[in-house]
């Protein structure tokens, strides 16, 4: 189950009420910074833009590949550990606007996580340390540490091997 907060709206659909939930200027700033960072070829520059301007929490040596799109409206709800790779054209969402409500949820990626190209990560999801997500996966629920997942809908392909202890007889 994804961990999101729900906010009910009255009247027109929630997306038409976008600027009741976020200021136009914040949205504009985020779009400009994210579009710039999607094309910047230097990882350190991307990390600086994401950390200092957008307020994302990102560990050292994390790499955002070309055209990765963090959430345009609430990027500050994204936390990523150290030494993680996020593949080409991946989208990380922390919001979803529906007809009569909108939802917000933090996205947390652990250390040493590998996200394959063209993956979409939905709001309220945690991905554990050392997990691997195959390309073109829709991550709609939490991923355990060390797991290998993939597909649409996402399924667990393998879990980490459990350490077995040898009993003396």
UniProtKB/TrEMBL annotation:
Keywords for the protein's UniProt record, in alphabetical order: Acyltransferase, Transferase
Keyword Acyltransferase among record annotations: yes
GO molecular function, one term: acyltransferase activity
Entry annotated with the keyword Oxidoreductase: no
PANTHER family noted in UniProt: ACETYLTRANSFERASE, ACETYLTRANSFERASE YVOF-RELATED
Protein name (database record): Acyltransferase
Organism ancestry: Bacteria, Bacillati, Bacillota, Bacilli, Bacillales
